[in-house]
Amino acid sequence: FLMMKAFLRWLSFLPLINLSSAREVGAAIHLDSFTFDNLRKSHDLLVCFDKYIPFGGKHDRFKDMAVKTAELNLPNFLVTWVGVQDYGEQLNQDLHKRFNVDEKNFPEYKLFTRGSDEPIDYTGSKTSRKQVLKFVEDNLGLYTTGKPGQVKEFEPLAKAFMKSTDREALKEEAVQLESEFAASDTITEELKASAKAYVKSMEKIMSKGDSYPKEEIKRIDKLLDGQLSEKKKKEFSKRRNIISSFR
């Protein structure tokens, strides 16, 4: 399902992509000079510079991270890679020279904010998915370290809720924040739905008691073990991730 989702997402960029050179690695879009310059006008890009036919543990971690990021459905952000040939047509050598990429350091990660020519270099572990995603979160403000469905702005409220002696105040804060999400033109419908789920979870806990999160997780797990469409599995998985924040 994730591979199909990535493929459909890739199709949406066909007007920008040179099909003779576009390839995918997992959920990452392969770029050349043309696609790179077009996509970075409208998207923040995490670019992995690597061999044209990459392999090995570091590359496997990159593929894992690309799939993880696709699940999060981050707005206006793409995980991409630029493979270079040191033989034949010497494909993408121009991009590697343009950004001073040293082949001895493959894979090399660079973060490009929308419209910027100057990348932010990643200097952490190349085998740690968490560190790479944290690097993206720190520089773009995107919530990459959460699970699908979780919302950065609501997580502190959820974590504080179960220990609070004034849950009504926290719920009102969540209601206000959810209203701001609902009124925003830049927040996705998916995030707006998650925001509502946080408020609903608070209301359920207040009416049914502190055992509600544990009982709800058990109920969702049973549903996930049953015969569900991929769409429903995704919805319930997100619901489970949100309610699991109330511990």
How is this fold's topology laid out?
Blueprint: H1 2-11, E1 24-25, E2 28-30, H2 33-39, E3 44-51, H3 57-72, E4 77-84, H4 93-98, E5 108-112, E6 120-121, H5 129-140, H6 155-161, H7 167-183, H8 189-208, H9 212-225, H10 230-243
Parallel strand pairs: 2-4, 3-4
Antiparallel strand pairs: 1-2, 3-5, 5-6
Helix pairs in contact: 3-5, 7-8, 8-10, 9-10
Signal peptide: 1-22
Keywords: Endoplasmic reticulum, Signal
Organism: Octactis speculum
Keywords, separated by commas or semicolons:
247 residues, alpha/beta, Glutaredoxin, Endoplasmic reticulum protein erp29, six-stranded mixed sheet, 10 helices, disordered N terminus
Walk me through this protein's architecture:
The protein is α/β, with parallel strands linked by helices. It folds into two domains: 29-140, Glutaredoxin, CATH 3.40.30.10; 153-245, Endoplasmic reticulum resident protein 29, C-terminal domain (Endoplasmic reticulum protein erp29), CATH 1.20.1150.12. 50% of the residues lie in helices and 11% in strands. It is built from ten helices and six strands. The chain has helices at residues 2-11, 33-39, 57-72, 93-98, 129-140, 155-161, 167-183, 189-208, 212-225, 230-243; strands at residues 24-25, 28-30, 44-51, 77-84, 108-112, 120-121. A six-stranded mixed beta sheet has the order 1-2-4-3-5-6. A hairpin with a 2-residue loop joins strand 1 (24-25) and strand 2 (28-30). The longest helix has 20 residues, at 189-208. The chain is elongated and about 65 Å long. It starts with a helix and ends with a helix. Mean pLDDT is 83; it is low at 1-24. Pfam families: ERp29 (PF07749), ERp29_N (PF07912). One of its GO terms (biological process) is protein secretion. Keywords: Endoplasmic reticulum, Signal. Residues 1-22 form the signal peptide. Residues 28-144 form the ERp29 N-terminal domain.
